[in-house]
Write a structure and sequence with these properties.
Chain lengths: ~250, ~425, ~675
């Protein structure tokens, strides 16, 4: 670019024309393509979306054990410490591991397409989709178990928050699987080559984001326990004897 | 007329050179007209704002400690804001006049800024605000600190009226319950716990304190203090549905001795009347009204608390034939000791309420016609369902009951015995 | 600078059209005139114009709702509207003005001007741009169909829970609110991504970020605010929708829910939202005031940084809407302090505008009148805002007409006056003729007087205890006089709006009777004034190289060592002729409209009958695939778009949009 200011240049319009002839039309000011920058921005907004859902969940998880006013016994009879007793942490851990591995295969898929290894890339993308589907299947199975044990969507504030948060995540994973399968189809038709590796990279970015969100959810929802009511016998919940165990739940 | 306006009148739409030659002259005289009229309007408004007679809800005339604390904080801030307003707005007018282009084709000096000045007018307002912040924080904690008092009232908001459970012996159990009007002793602070039974409402007696929201599922501490005996008006100030506008309340401050007498009266059950018409009215009450309304000594025994109750207390043995499910409507035990009803939108008596005769109601006559009109058809007077015909499914508040005029007469006669 | 039209879902079709026909491919539409060209346009200028028309239409709707409110409240115990209808009218008025008027009006200016101000030919994702507009339009219509489908939303524009729940608001009105705003929110989100990528990636050579016009900067900040705020209200609306339509318990107090959750989620969106509403108007007057003062904006870096600071600080003040909600004194203190200090960057802007005028040579045409009007009126709104920042004082002020006065001063006196300034300023650029100055001045004064008459007394009403959202008041409360005055003022505002509409029509009709504005009727500073009026379809013949702020101005003037300004070229000489050829433009497409159409169908499904979601989803998915497989009409294989050179003979296939040498009719 010129160092001379416009008003010191003899003919700015001619300068514009000269510059236009040599200017690379693909250049972007940031160096990132539009698509990549756009994807990062989109993921930024998604971070706020999940932030809102996680905050809601945290509030209602903690509300379960805050209600100590004996006059609210009507509420207490429907409040349980389901959150802790109902989880099957080993199962969910395996599920989480599967999803984590799918991020690995996604990275391998990108590496493959970047060296124009179309077949290998297609295989890894397909594997990612399969692993993702396994995760989703695991979630679905888990939810059916919970529902059978009495924690349904509309059971209480904790259950609504739980299913909303994990459900939104599951929908995001599913959309990711659809994206991956679309890439597989494109690849089968011969349309996915090294020069399209950015497309694979962007789908990968989305997939990794969904994975990272899951790690956060797994920790916040499953691993960090609800404060045990029976661990603090002085708490109002225990005092009023209004805790019901899983076997008593269900309308 | 100047050349400029002539050019405009010719219909030429584009700002022509002749405009630049003469400038938009009329601005000059308009400027001072604008200035003068702005000043006049402001004076009128300031004067108009200050008066509080006939303005029962004004915030500008604090009559209690809490309201005064707020007023003392905001008054200097209003003045600072007023000064800034004058500086900026008159500054703008000044700039508009002084730096008008006129006929000039010149370009002025292309000044880009002055960092020192910019930093200055960033830092100075920040410092002013910091000063205001100090005052704000100290006021905030002063206001939040409820004064020591043994009068504790739980205030319940529900669509579309307020009720008050008094706990005067600090045992955590309410001693009596009243509605619409919160009676307090003058000169003494009263501790409030503000709650809601359905949606969010807001409890506000402007002369005595700011407002505090009544949020279902939560209890919010607040307090009131009135310097002098008097009637202080309030308004629900959080949108709560159809009759939000019609959900009002009053705080009555009485001389301490009168307040004690009032309390003693409230603690008593209602007497069973002897007059025949009143007895017929009592019978109407137990058949038609007791499922929602309570009268201590009639039907307030062993209430079962449910989500929408306003608190209920064990009383004396029930009168034969009473229902015992009540609690969803105002407690009427001492209805006639109040001055208003139906969310404080109707006067019980035919004259202005005042603290002086609040306890005795001397010289006041009950406005029977208004009371009958209310009971006859509440939805006609206060919107409680989108369509009054759909009241049974969608309505809240008081339904119209199938009463004959005679029954209505007798009922009101009975209610008049509830002093 | 590339106009590569590849969405994340897009599957490139290769270097040349393949023999096999991909699923659902239609050739790109080719019409350039008539309604079909508008419906399939991806041109940012046309999209901007459509946003402008849409927002003005809804301004009339919201304004009519306002007149109903004022007519009802003119006298005590008014009987024009029942309580139920009143609640719907005031709620719809608020939602309409915020989401269907101010936000799209800003989008109109942003869409039209942003690419021009940074020297680009279009935005980064032209079809997504069209998508945003159609989603917004269909969402707005969807929201308003509530009126004929059982009644509008009626819980206030922020619909606090639990009153917004299905127990207390059993009709469908609030369902339309929850679903309608989600749809409209998607439009904002997509648009935000688009404009941020555009500004960050597509600036002309030499245009560093600190050489962009202040308007562009304000829009950029707004897009970041949208990007992060819209997801939060999306969460809130989903929770509300789940409660109302699917039995969830998020706001079910009897199950232990906390109504304050709604308030927090709403206001974490709601406060950045108000900066979203005002910053574009701030940007507009930052262009208008320097132009008509004949001076550059005073303190450009401070103007930019104060906007950025407002954007950041705006996230830390939300609970000042909740001072009376029982959040506790520590929270009140924290938010009081942060709210007080956010007045500082705003004050800096006011002073900078005044300093720009100082020492200038000011011409008071209509655009300048409105801009200066903003400076004066917004200050009033800002000052009342500072008084609310004090938590204890706010417990007297909140939920009264004092607050109504505040936000109307900042939104009408601020945002709307700013937009009218922008209309008068940029009208010649967009349409090729001026709006009448005479009618404009009548409009300005009527509007200023009417507006102050309407909202000035509301300060008094609020301090004298008039609550918000009441459908009537008694004659013994002392509210009668000022309510009557306010109603009279409202009708004067209505007259000013009629004057504006008349101006639009009369100026259009008389456009041949006035001299053409040329590229630069105001002797202005930024790049959009360097192209002919109305803007040619391809924007710039040649993308200009930018070496400093106010690049175009410096092609017309120079400043000598004595700081005198001398002219070195006329506006026309320094401007471009508009006759560039061989520029590849993004091709039009119908798919954005079809994708957008699917959303209200799914919306009705969610409210009424989930089976309707099947055709809605089918339309959505099919349209998305159609979009993805749509051929990129460029024989260079989709990467040559934006070439500045004349490509010569091989461009002449008739399936791509070729630039016309005569002006494309825009009206």
């Amino acid at each position: 670019m010129a160092d001379t200011l416009t008003s010191e240049r003899p003919d700015p319009a001619a300068f514009d024309l000269e510059n236009a002839k040599t200017h690379d039309p693909h250049a972007t000011n940031t160096g990132l393509t539009h698509n990549k920058l756009g994807m990062w921005l989109f993921l930024g907004s998604e971070a706020l979306l999940f932030g809102g859902l996680i905050s809601t969940f945290l509030l209602y998880k903690s509300k379960l054990v805050e209600i100590t006013n004996p006059n609210d016994a009507a509420v207490l009879t429907r409040v349980t410490d389901l959150g802790v007793n109902i989880y099957d942490i080993p199962f969910t851990s395996v599920s989480s591991f599967v999803l984590l591995m799918s991020s690995l295969t996604m990275v391998l898929a990108l590496a493959a397409i970047q060296r124009d290894d179309v077949a290998r890339s297609r295989l890894w993308i397909l594997t990612t989709a399969v692993l993702g589907s396994t995760f989703v299947a695991g979630q679905v199975y888990e939810f059916t178990v919970f529902a059978r044990e009495g924690m349904k969507w509309d059971t209480n504030i904790f259950s609504s928050a739980f299913y909303t948060l994990t459900g939104f995540h599951g929908v995001h994973v599913t959309i990711g699987i659809l994206l991956l399968l679309s890439l597989v189809v494109a690849s089968l038709k011969g349309g996915l080559r090294k020069k399209h590796s950015e497309t694979v990279e962007l789908v990968g970015l989305y997939w990794h984001f969904v994975d990272v969100v899951w790690i956060l959810i797994f920790v916040v929802v499953y691993l960090i326990p609800v404060a045990q009511a029976d661990a603090s016998a002085e708490s109002g919940l225990a005092r009023t004897g209004a805790i019901t165990t899983i076997s008593q739940i269900g309308d | 007329m100047t050349t400029a306006s002539r050019a405009v009148k010719n219909g030429s739409e584009r700002p022509m050179k002749s405009d630049r030659v003469n400038g938009p002259q009329p601005m000059r005289s308009k400027d001072s007209t604008v200035t003068r009229s702005m000043l006049a309007v402001m004076m009128f408004m300031v004067v108009g704002a200050c008066g509080s007679s006939g303005r029962p809800l004004t915030t500008l005339n604090p009559r209690g400690d809490a309201a005064r604390i707020i007023h003392d904080l905001i008054s200097p801030v209003f003045i600072i804001a007023g000064v800034v307003f004058v500086i900026i707005n008159f500054g703008v007018l000044f700039l508009a006049v002084k730096f008008r282009r006129g006929d000039s084709e010149e370009w002025p000096k292309q000044v880009h800024g002055n960092t020192a000045l910019e930093l200055g007018w960033t830092i100075v307002p920040a410092l002013i605000l910091a000063g205001v912040a100090v005052g704000t924080v100290t006021t905030l904690f002063k206001l939040d600190d409820t004064p020591e008092t043994d009068i504790e009232v739980t205030v319940y908001g529900q669509q579309w009226w307020w009720s008050y459970d008094y706990d005067l012996n600090a045992d955590g159990e309410p001693d009596f319950s009243t509605a619409n009007e919160l009676v307090i002793p003058a000169g003494k602070a009263v501790s409030l716990k503000v709650k809601s039974n359905d949606v969010i409402h807001s409890f506000w007696i402007p002369a005595l304190n700011g407002k505090r929201d009544a949020v279902p599922g939560r209890t919010h501490p607040w307090w009131l203090e009135a310097d002098e005996p008097g009637v202080y008006y309030g308004q629900c100030t959080e949108f709560c549905g159809l009759s939000h506008a019609k959900m009002q309340m009053r705080t009555i401050a009485l001389e301490p001795a009168e307040y004690e007498a009032w309390v003693a009266n409230q603690m008593q059950d209602a007497a069973i009347p002897t007059d025949q018409a009143a007895l017929r009215g009592l019978s109407v009450f137990t058949q038609q009204c007791a499922s929602c309304h309570q009268i201590e000594g009639v039907n307030a025994v062993d209430c079962v608390p449910d989500g929408a109750t306003n608190g209920c207390f064990a009383g004396t043995a029930p009168y034969d034939g009473a229902e015992v499910v009540s609690g969803l409507a105002p407690n009427l035990t001492h209805l006639m000791s109040r001055s208003s009803y139906a969310g404080s939108i109707f006067e019980l008596y035919d004259d202005e309420p005042s603290a002086a005769n609040y306890l005795t109601k001397e010289g006041l006559n009950v406005d029977r016609a208004q009371l009958k009109a209310w009971i006859r058809n509440p939805s006609a007077l206060k919107p409680m369902a989108p369509n009054p015909n759909e009241f049974s499914e969608l309505g809240r508040g008081m339904p119209a009951l199938p009463l004959t005029e005679d029954q209505l007469d007798d009922l009101v006669t009975y209610l008049e015995t509830l002093k | 600078m590339a106009i590569i039209e590849q969405e994340p879902l897009a599957l490139p079709v290769g270097d040349r059209p393949t023999g096999s026909s991909p699923i659902g491919v239609l050739t790109r539409p080719r019409t350039t005139t008539g309604w079909r060209s508008w419906v399939s346009t991806v041109d940012h200028k046309r999209i901007g114009i459509m946003y402008g028309i849409g927002s003005i239409f809804f301004f009339l709707v919201g304004g009519f709702e306002a007149l109903l409110i004022r007519a009802q409240l003119a006298t005590p115990d008014g009987t024009l509207l029942s309580a139920d209808v009143y609640n719907q009218v005031y709620t719809m008025h608020g939602v309409t003005m915020v989401f269907l008027v101010i936000m799209p009006m800003a989008a109109a200016f942003a869409n039209y001007l942003l690419p021009l101000q940074i020297g680009a030919r279009d935005v980064a994702f032209p079809r997504l741009n069209a998508l945003s507009f159609w989603i917004w339009l269909f969402g707005s219509i969807f929201f308003n169909t509530a009126w004929i489908l059982g009644g509008g939303a009626d819980g206030g524009w922020f619909n606090y829970a639990p009153n917004s729940g299905v127990i207390f608001s059993p009709g469908h009105g609030i369902d339309f609110y929850a679903v309608g705003l989600q749809i409209v929110g998607i439009a904002s989100l997509v648009s935000a991504m688009n404009l941020i990528v555009t500004v960050l990636n597509m600036r002309a050579p030499g245009m560093g970020l600190m050489r962009m016009p202040v308007f562009t900067w304000m829009i950029l900040v707004v897009q970041f605010l949208l990007l992060f705020a819209v997801p939060v209200i999306t969460v809130a609306l989903f929770l509300l929708m789940f409660d109302r339509l699917f039995g969830a318990n998020f706001f079910n107090v009897s199950e232990g829910a906390d109504p304050l959750l709604w308030q927090h989620l709403f206001w974490i969106f709601g406060h950045p939202e108000v900066y979203i509403l005002i910053l574009p108007a701030f940007g507009i007057v930052s262009e208008v005031i320097p132009t008509f003062s004949r001076k550059p904006i005073y303190g450009y870096p401070f103007m930019v940084f104060s906007g950025i600071v407002i954007g950041f600080m705006g996230w830390g003040v939300w609970a000042h809407h909740m001072f009376a909600s029982g959040i506790g004194p520590l929270s009140v203190m924290a938010f009081s302090l942060s709210t007080m200090f956010i007045a500082v960057p705003t004050g800096v802007k006011i002073l900078n505008w005044m300093a720009t005028m100082w020492g200038g040579k000011i011409e008071f045409n209509t655009a300048m009148l409105f801009a200066v009007g903003l400076v004066a009126m917004f200050t009033i709104g800002g000052l009342s805002g500072v008084t609310h920042a004090l938590g204890p004082a706010d417990t007297q002020q909140t939920d009264t007409y004092y607050i109504v006065a505040h936000f109307h001063y900042v939104l009408f006196g601020g945002a709307l006056l700013g937009f009218f300034s922008g209309f008068f300023f940029w009208w010649p650029k967009v349409f090729g003729h001026f709006l009448s100055e005479r009618l404009g001045k009548w409009q300005f004064w009527a509007s200023l007087i009417g507006f102050n008459l309407t909202f000035g007394p509301m300060h008094i009403l609020g301090l004298q205890g008039m609550s918000r959202r009441i459908y009537t008041y008694g004659d013994d409360q002392g509210f009668s006089l000022w309510n009557l005055v306010a109603t009279i003022g409202a009708f004067i505002i209505a007259i000013s709006v009629l004057i504006f509409l008349a101006n639009v029509v009369i100026s259009y009709r008389g456009r041949h009777d006035q001299p053409a504005p040329g590229p630069d009727p105001w002797d202005a500073r930024s790049l959009e004034w360097m192209v002919p009026s109305p803007t040619p379809e391809h924007n710039f013949d040649v993308v200009p190289v930018v070496t400093q702020n106010d690049e175009y101005w410096f092609r017309k003037y120079q400043i000598d060592e004595h700081e005198n300004v001398t002219r070195i070229a006329s506006s026309e000489e320094a401007a471009q002729a508009g006759d560039g050829t061989g520029v590849h433009l993004p091709s039009p497409s119908y798919w954005p409209l079809l994708v957008a159409l699917a959303l209200p169908i799914i919306g009705y499904a969610v409210i009424y009958n989930l089976w309707l979601a099947v055709p809605g989803a089918l339309l959505l998915v099919a349209s998305m695939y159609g979009w993805a497989f749509e051929p990129v009409d460029d024989p260079d294989g989709g990467h040559g778009a934006g070439g500045h050179d004349d490509h010569g003979g091989d461009d002449r296939s008739d399936s791509h949009a070729e630039i016309k040498t005569e002006e494309t009719p825009v009206g």
